[in-house]
């Protein structure tokens, strides 16, 4: 118990310190967010736009898919440009050309190097000087800049409309014709784009870096990495090396004191517990998991194909019906839905086991209600996404019923409330099973940790309600990453670790002491870096240097526990040899082995690749980001959800025998397909873009001219092979689950037996 006490106090201290940092520097985000001017005026007093105009543009951007069509401040999709970097560069070029014609009577490109350098110095001073008046909320721009803004806005208004001369560009950017039909909304959209570019080019009043810490890289105005960026990048690498060293030393020392493994039971203990009605009702959850999984995989193929044909799918003009931004929205949202459903099913399967093999009263009814509520939220949110991006949804309803515009939380606010309500209801169902077990005497430390992780999953999704349709972009990003990073990468990770430990303990394969100690230690390690590490997504989202420092320091520690997961994979694989009946667990365990591998590679190696500030400065918004996203989201959480799905299926269909051939092909094709996607396309494209971003600027690395060159087109076509391999693997696993749910024989009812809970 003393050993547990130390681990509990360590976990409590970690949570107290890390959430204090997250909260304190969160207030810094509120205080130091780039100001949205009440008015933008020219030197002669002409009003160009107001605060409401800029926020109207933000809502217009949300309605076309927001981050699913290009990106802002580096966050979003990768085929269309980053609109901040692209607007800024276009406006700068227009300014230089206007100045050259005004001073020298020639276009800028016709000038010699000396005169170009003189104009670039004037350009830097004009753009980096802060002309925002805090007292009256007025931003003043020169008449020349106002003219450059108007020329840039005209291009964007035509691009987001249906101007025939830009049809080829829209194809390159995978934009449908008439992306935003309303001329007034296109005008507002350009004003929002201008504001994001102004914040990226203008120095803070109290410093020599822009509001976005000099991002994006734009040599024309000396947008270069700050000294703090380089310093904290080096510190993060040093901390990573030190953390890995101390972890290996500590882990090796602690391993010498581990108790021996308990003898494996002669029979599977969980198979001796009679299935409850609520557990039998979980088959439809497993069907929903693989249905959404299959849907997501095919959508992913469609999204990838859009990067080579733009508006067509092998000649068919798909974009007018299901444009890129819609398919990408559905692709990401369906992933979140099926992965979450897999986790929910695992929890609902465990609840009766924890409760001594019995259902709490009305548990089956609750399980059924939750399932149909999930279906309503999935279908409703997808329909809302379609109506929004098709510009059918009335603009005043878009945020609530259509598309929020923010990657990973794209669903309309009403559906987001529905999802939160469903997860909260799942929490209630879980606690009804856990509560009675907690009141029994005995060692309940592992169960308490499981309860805490379940509670965190049930409640922390509510962080998404702290921003609204017209919330400042920097503040929205702070709360969005509470969901994407903290909720998913933090508490789901703790739940998965603890749930697996709980399952293996109840199977009699590990001792309670080892399961509890490992879960508590893992939770502390994950959350130490994971909670304040949320800030590593906010380096360039209108935040200050302290936010960068905290994010770089602690997010480096996120990688530390992942380096020993290769050993965890080995440990999990050995579990299959502990008892003959573990042969029936071969494929769930194989998925858990894959989780450990992809956690190390996808979350660890590829995660740290984009983690230090100096690295992310150049590659944020490039194809290096989906390398990490695919390897971590599917490789870790996807395989976890599939492992949980197969595990639950194995018990709710006790006489089902997995098809070794089907599962072997499915499992390995999923892994091989994921490797091929990354190695033959995403990573090479990202590295080539990385070079372009360093040498020319972010605008160029995402430009039409660069992205449509033959080499990159070929690499994106090559990805088709990996996609096909992955799809075949997905279909194999999905068919195993569907056939098991529909045709798997049921075992006769057994007498209830007390579990190890």
Describe this structure in words.
This protein is mainly alpha-helical. 67% of the residues lie in helices and 2% in strands. The strands form 2 sheets. A 4-stranded mixed β-sheet has the order 2-1-6-5. β5 and β6 (138-141) form a beta hairpin. The two termini are 17 Å apart. Residues 37-217 form the Nitric oxide reductase subunit B cytochrome c-like domain. Pfam families: COX1 (PF00115), NorB_cytochrome_c-like (PF22085).
Strand order, biggest sheet?
A: 2-1-6-5
End-to-end C-alpha gap: 17 Å
In DSSP terms, counting alpha (H) and pi (I) runs of 4 or more, how many helices? 26
Instruction: Give the tally of β-strands.
Output: 6
Low-confidence stretches: 745-757
Rounded to an integer in angstroms, the radius of gyration calculated over CA atoms is: 27 Å
Secondary-structure-derived class: mainly alpha
DSSP helix fraction = 55-70%
What does the main sheet amount to? 4 strands, mixed
Q: What is the approximate shape?
A: globular
Report the sheet-strand fraction. under 5%
Pfam family, one: COX1
Organism: Alcanivorax xiamenensis
Transmembrane segments: 7-26, 230-254, 285-308, 335-357, 369-393, 413-434, 446-467, 479-507, 514-535, 547-567, 587-610, 630-649, 669-690, 724-745
Keywords: Membrane, Transmembrane, Transmembrane helix
List keywords for this structure.
757 residues, mainly alpha, four-stranded mixed sheet, 6 strands, disordered C terminus
